[in-house]
Amino acid sequence: MRNRSLSVLVLFVLLLPICGFASYEDYVHIGYQVYKKGDPTTGTSPAWDSYSYQDVLSDMRLIRHHFTHIRTWTIQYSNQYVIQAAHACGVKVAMGAWAFPTSTAPDYFDEAKSKAEIDSIIAQAKQYPGTVTTIICGNENLSDSPGPSGIIQANIELLMAYARTQLDANGLSGIKVTTCQTSGVWAGHGSLAQSAAIDEVWADIYPFWHDNNPDDQAMTDYFKTEYDNVVGIAGGKTVVIGETGWATAGGTTWPGGNCKPSEANAGKFFKAISGWFEDNKVEGHIFEFFDEPWKWSAGMPQESHFGIFEGWNNNRQKYSIPTISSHANIPRVRDYNGDDYSDIAFFDQTSGLWALYDISRVYYGAGEDEPVADDYDGDGTADVGIFRPASGLWAIRGLTRVYFGASSDTGVSGDYDGDGTDEIGIFRDSSGLWAVRDMTRIYFGNSNDIPVAGDSDGDGTDDITIFRPDTGLWAIQGVSRFYFGSHSDTPLQGYFETAGGVNPAIFRHTTGLWAIRGVSRVYYGSGSDYPIMSNLYSTSSAELGIFRPSTGLWAIRGVTRIYYGAP
Ligand SMILES: [Ca+2]
Ligand SMILES: [Ca+2]
Ligand SMILES: [Ca+2]
Ligand SMILES: [Ca+2]
C-alpha cells in the first residue's frame, strides 16, 4: 500500500503552457510604474517620490516571474531605482526619458530638465551594464503647435539626437533611441519616424477605448489596421507597440465613447494580443503590471484599473498570465527521505538546483526541464527527476534515462497499477492521449484540459483525471464526473480524512480561495502564489499552503512559515 503523502499529485499547470516556447518572453513585455499604493476608486495615493529601492526591488522580484523586459516613462519620482533593481533581477529595461513642457514661450520646452533625464539614464546604463535596451524620449506628448501641454516635433528630434550623441560618446551605441506616440499621432508625423536619430518607432494602440470585444476578429482587425498604418510611415524601421492594455473596472463609458472593462475581458485580451505579438513577431508592451490608483479621475475612472496586479491590494493577481521558466523556482513537495512526511523542496530552472529542505541540495536538470520527482523504484523515497518537454526525455537521478512523450506533452507520473512504484506518464492535450509507460494508452480529455492524477476511489491505484477550466468539469476515468471550480482555478487533490480517496480541490488565483470538495472553503495566499498540498505535519490529512517564489515564502496553513528559495 502506497504511502498517502506520496500519492498527492499536484501539477503546477500555470507554468506549462509556455515552457519550450521562447517567443512569449521575446515579444510580450510589460509597462511598469511603481505607483501602486492608494485607492483606485478615489485617486487617493502617496506621493510619486515616496517609494524606496526596496519597494522597486520587491516589485521586480515579482515581475521577473512573468516578463523579461519592462518599460518606464521617466527616471525620476522613484523610477531612479528601476535600473538597479532590474539589473539585480536580470530584467531588461526600455527606460522612459520624460520630455518636460514649461509655461514659457516661444516653444514651451524645458530643454535642460529633459536632457537631464537622458543623462541620468546613460549614467545608470553604464553603472549597470546590459540592462538598458532603449531610451524613449517623450511619450504621447507630441504637439503640432507650441504650447504648455506638449512638445513640438523639432524638440522631440532634438532630444533623440542628444540621446544618440551621448550614448555613442559613452560607448553605449547598442542602446536604441525612440519616442513613443499614439498610432493616430504617428499617422500625421511620418517625417518624425524617418528622422535620423530614431532607431525604432514606438506606437500606442488601445482597442479598449473603441468599444471592442477583447478577443474577436474586429478587435484584431482594429489593432492590425492601426499597426499597419504605423508600419507604412516607418520607412522600414521596426515598429514596437509601446502600450496596449485593457482596464478591469471603472464602468463602460468615457467621454470619447464606450468600453468593456472587466477582469475576464482583460484576461481574454492579454491572451489574444500576446498571441498576436508572438504570431507576428512584434515586440509589444502590455499596459501595465500594477494598477495606478493616482490615475483615477471622475471622467475616466478606468485609468486606475489597467494593472494585471492590484498593487494596492496585497498584489492580488486579477487574471492568469504565463510564468516564464528562466526565473522560476518550482515547488515539488514529496517525501524525499522516506519518513512518510512530505518535505519542502523546489527545483530552480535557472541553475538546475534541487533544494530539499533539511535533507540535501543537488544539481540535476536545468532550463525548461519540469521537475517530476516521485518514487520511481518503490523504496518509499521520492527520486529527483526531470521531464524535458522539448525532447521527451525523462531523467530520474540514479535510476533511468528514457525518452517518453514529445514536445508540449505534460508529464503526469503516478502509481497507476497500485504496486507502490510510480510510473512515467504523459498527457497530450492536443489529442487527449494519456500514455503510461509499459502500461496503457488511452484517450481521455482534450485540449485545454488539465491532467490531475490521484487515487480518487481509494483502491490504491491513481486514477486518470482531467479538470476542464472552461466549465469546471472534473472527469475521473471509471469513477465519476462532476463540476467544481472555474476558469482561473488550479486543480489539486489531497487526502482529508474523509471516506475513500483523495478530495478534489481548487485554488483560485484571483482571490486566494481554496475550495476542497466536501471539506471546506478558506482564503489563503493570493495572486501568483503556487498552491501547495502537503503532508508536512500529518500523514493522514493534507495541509494547504502556498509557495511565493518572489520572496521564497513557504506558508503552510497551521503548520509553518519559512523562507526557503528567495531569488
Ligand atoms: Ca519526509
Ligand atoms: Ca525512490
Ligand atoms: Ca506502479
Ligand atoms: Ca483508484
Q: How many domain modules?
A: 2
How would you describe the oligomerization state of the chains in this entry? single chain
Overall outline: elongated
CATH topology of the largest domain: TIM Barrel
According to CATH, the homologous superfamily of the largest domain is Glycosidases
Strand content: 25-35%
Indicate the mean pLDDT: 91
Terminal Cα separation, in Å? 39 Å
Please give the share of residues in helix.
Answer: 10-25%
Unreliable stretches covering 5 or more consecutive residues: 1-21
- Counted by DSSP, the helix tally is 9
Question: Can you list the strand order of the major beta sheet?
Answer: 1-2-3-4-7-8-9-12
Q: Total strand count, please?
A: 38
What summary fits the major beta sheet?
8 strands, parallel, barrel
CATH architecture of the largest domain: Alpha-Beta Barrel
Look at the structure and give the CATH class of the largest domain: Alpha Beta
Structural class: alpha+beta
Rounded radius of gyration (Å):
26 Å
Listed once per kind, the bound small molecules are: calcium ion
